[in-house]
Amino acid sequence: MGRLSPPLVGRWRLRMGRRMAPPGLVVVEAPSESRRATRRLSLSARDRADRAALAPAVSIRRTFREFWPDTRGLRWLFAVGGVFAIAAALSEVAAIALFGHITDEVLVTRDLGAFWRPAAAWLGLAALAGASAFGGAYVTALAAERFLLKLRDRIYAHVQTLSPDYFENRRLGDLMARLTDDIESIEQLVGSGLVKVFTTVASVIFFAGAAFFVRWDLALITMALIPCFLVVSKVFAGRFRTAAASERLSNGAMNSVIEESLANQSLVQAYNRQATESRRLHVEGRGWLRANMSQARLSGLYGPIVQVIETVSMIVILGFGAWEIAAGRLTLGGLLAFAAYLALLYPAVQGLGEIALSVSEAAAGSDRVMEVLRSRPAVTDRRTAITLVSRSRGHVEFEDVDFTYPGRRRPTLQQVSFTAEPGQLIVCTGPSGAGKSTLAKLLLRFYEPDSGRILLDGVDIRDLTRASLRDNVTVLHQESMLFSGTVRENIAYGRPGATLDQVIRAAELAGVHDFVSTLPRGYETPVGQRGRLLSGGQRQRIAIARALVRDAPVLVLDEPMTGLDEVTAGRVMEPLRRLMAGRTTILITHDLRHVPRGARSIVLEPAHRRDGIRLRRVGARIRHHRPHDDRVRSTALTE
Ligand SMILES: Nc1ncnc2c1ncn2[C@@H]1O[C@H](COP(=O)(O)OP(=O)(O)OP(=O)(O)O)[C@@H](O)[C@H]1O
User: Fold this and answer.
1) Which residues line ligand 1 (CB under 6 A)?
2) What is the pLDDT of residues 587-636, one digit of tens each?
3) Domain residue spans of the chain
4) CATH architecture of the domain with residue range 379-472+552-639
5) Residue 455 pLDDT grade (very low, low, confident, very high; cuts 50, 70, 90)
6) Nearest alpha carbon to residue 541 among 566, 517, 576
7) Longest alpha-carbon distance in the chain
8) Protein residue whose Cα sits closest to atom 2 of ligand 1
């Protein structure tokens, strides 16, 4: 997969430079190419292929208009990188001139005394070229990395303003590819790419100019071969692109098999499907092998064909040169210097073709990033939105709320009305898919009702800033969402800056402190990816501690007992009671076993039973362990 055309051209350039340039000459290479190519190998796969295959390219002008401002503060670094690269190229031009001089004045005349000064100057030039090449590569890489950092920060900050709906409708891998690969390709166009265009064009001018300076007529003849390079490059570029695209597709397919299979290893092993999974990987691996072989074939062919053209040009130069030397119109040093200039000129011309290729790839990446930037959050703060400065009392009211998910035809909620007084517990039940979790999403303003209002302390939540609304509402999700940090970090996530004492106090109330004390590093013990090193009940109690630390007046508990057995659920219920104490709580649950006595209930019914989903009842009392009775009673009391 590393055999894409640009690195290949780079390798060829190095080889040709070594072969034809005078010894000690520094051959300028594109600094970032191989680094980027290597990094890309580790990144997600199918997404890159999809991107290359599917994204329509936007115009380069639009890309620059969008992203050029991000180079502010870095332009001078890119300019310095360009100046260094030009200094390196000029040093090469001068070194070759010295090489010609030494040939004519020292080698041909056998005058050793004339050797030392040009030799010292050559050494100096080699050092200058080396230092300039290093400086250019370093400064350009620094500017490129800073640009990437800035651009990624900007796009990630934007992504985090988008509603959860945006993420639910997209593949995470695709979004990650946009934040990594695609941003890099933009950098390669707008940042280091621009430097590369500038320095490559400058190199072509320098090397061609120097060749013309030595012998303009010879230069004109050999320049006639340049179109051959461009034709070969064009013919191969198309094939390289196809081979690279199929390699990326196979690589993507292989990655997705590995990802899926490793993520579900417990299922694979429990069902004894290891051999099947290995076979799936093998089949994809064979596709990858074929794609790589087709790239290897192209790489193998490309070198010799270019070499033939080089050889033709060398033979023309040597034949014509020998004739001119015999006629006394050209010196041996002049001829060798001329050949050396061509040895650098041809790769530079190749480099221009290569840039054209990477520009089309960058434009495709840029389109995908711009699509993210153009996406607007479904819910935003009104211009006149107010910030709740003091803690809300926790009076929640749904008033005739209708809601249909974007892209869905059937309404999810119809005319839902209920009130939760400060500190009151409301139990929300109903069959799966009835819209219970949707109530929580609306309360957090992840979505906006189509009609009706939701009020917090009598204020329409659309008139509040989202940040201050969410500061007053804590949701405890069905699946306890933990990060891969430590126990302490996961609990303190509820309140940035929470002290260890506050964390411990919350853990005690959540009934998890004793367990944490038995862990090898106590509160500093990592909980593993998504908290997988802990049991379901332990994860849930850590999530309760996090909610306790947060201390918001309104609490939504979305199926807090899901997946827990009777005993564990009973153990979790006690900390939950402590969490609910004094807070307005909407408890969404199917499981009425552990619901506190005296709680009010609401029942949601799905659309196919009635016209849409509607709230059946507010205000019924729920009788412990008698869910069926409660339901009947709720219906009877429907308002
Ligand atoms: N992001 C979404 N986009 C479109 N439809 C959605 C989305 N989220 C949920 N739905 C649909 O809305 C309906 C209500 O979903 P919701 O998750 O609120 O149900 P629920 O009552 O909480 O179900 P459960 O008890 O199974 O968790 C379902 O039919 C579901 O398919």
Assistant:
1) 165, 168, 405, 408, 412, 430, 432-438
2) 888 777 767 777 788 888 765 554 444 444 433 333 333 333 333 222 22
3) 5-374, 379-472+552-639, 484-551
4) 3-Layer(aba) Sandwich (3.40)
5) very high
6) 576
7) 116
8) 405
